[in-house]
Amino acid sequence: MISINDRDFVKLTQFMKDNYGINLTRKRTLIEGRLSNIILEKGFKSFTEYLDYVFNDKTGDEMVVLINRLTTNHTYFMREAKHFDFMRDTVLPYLSESVKDHDLRIWSAGCSTGEEPYTLEMILHDFFDLDSIPWDTQILATDISNRALNIARRGIYSEEAIKDVPAVWKLNYFEKVDEKNYRVCEKIRKDVIFREFNLMTKEFPFKKKFHVIFCRNVMIYFDQPTKEELINRFYEFTEPGGYLFIGHSESVNREASKYKYVMPAVYRKVL
């Protein structure tokens, strides 16, 4: 296992704290354990070489890989819960009236290990459960990391990861695997479509636009031109009246985007 020197350790842990709110100052061994293999795979001999490579990667791809390696155990259901409240109380009532063909198109971009799209799917099931006309509530969930997607597809999470899930959801949407783990039930899992996808792809392959796009805590790892280019592509693939949700530590340059600010970390493509 490769050791990390004090300078690189401070640099990395400060970055994680400032940009992602995660305190790894007591996780030196965890950092070394999770990143040593990829350092060797990339042909580097030290953390210094690897971190210089990551922080100088203009595409943001290598930062995504690093973040996935370090944050797998720090993701959880109901993260930034006000977004989900707004989705339930404002966005879905609007969409239920405006989407005449009942074909909802929602994209969780940078879905990591699946907590976000599964949470959204549970909200959809709750909201449309009593509707007499069936709705297509499948969610597209994409990530660049196959490792994260494999975890997401399994749908098995620790008791700690679901600690903020409402009790009624634990009853209706989870199955207990053992004393410490729960699995998202089949009716939720089958409605979340996981795919590997690089957000830096120049031409998005989607045939239809989305009513809602969630891309939270991903763009903070991109430089400003890359971020603005991605947001403009999101806008192109958002239905008029549709919404973009980003992380609370992120922002949209309103002078460079046509999205209109709605509330912190929520933007809309005006009709």
TrEMBL record:
<dbReference type="GO" id="GO:0032259">
    <property type="term" value="P:methylation"/>
</dbReference>
<keyword id="KW-0489">Methyltransferase</keyword>
<keyword id="KW-0808">Transferase</keyword>
<dbReference type="InterPro" id="IPR029063">
    <property type="entry name" value="SAM-dependent_MTases_sf"/>
</dbReference>
<dbReference type="InterPro" id="IPR000780">
    <property type="entry name" value="CheR_MeTrfase"/>
</dbReference>
<dbReference type="GO" id="GO:0008983">
    <property type="term" value="F:protein-glutamate O-methyltransferase activity"/>
</dbReference>
<dbReference type="Pfam" id="PF01739">
    <property type="entry name" value="CheR"/>
</dbReference>
<dbReference type="Pfam" id="PF03705">
    <property type="entry name" value="CheR_N"/>
</dbReference>
<feature type="domain" description="CheR-type methyltransferase">
    <location>
        <begin position="1"/>
        <end position="271"/>
    </location>
</feature>
<dbReference type="InterPro" id="IPR036804">
    <property type="entry name" value="CheR_N_sf"/>
</dbReference>
<dbReference type="InterPro" id="IPR050903">
    <property type="entry name" value="Bact_Chemotaxis_MeTrfase"/>
</dbReference>
<protein>
    <recommendedName>
        <fullName>protein-glutamate O-methyltransferase</fullName>
        <ecNumber>2.1.1.80</ecNumber>
    </recommendedName>
</protein>
<dbReference type="InterPro" id="IPR026024">
    <property type="entry name" value="Chemotaxis_MeTrfase_CheR"/>
</dbReference>
<keyword id="KW-0949">S-adenosyl-L-methionine</keyword>
<dbReference type="InterPro" id="IPR022641">
    <property type="entry name" value="CheR_N"/>
</dbReference>
<dbReference type="InterPro" id="IPR022642">
    <property type="entry name" value="CheR_C"/>
</dbReference>
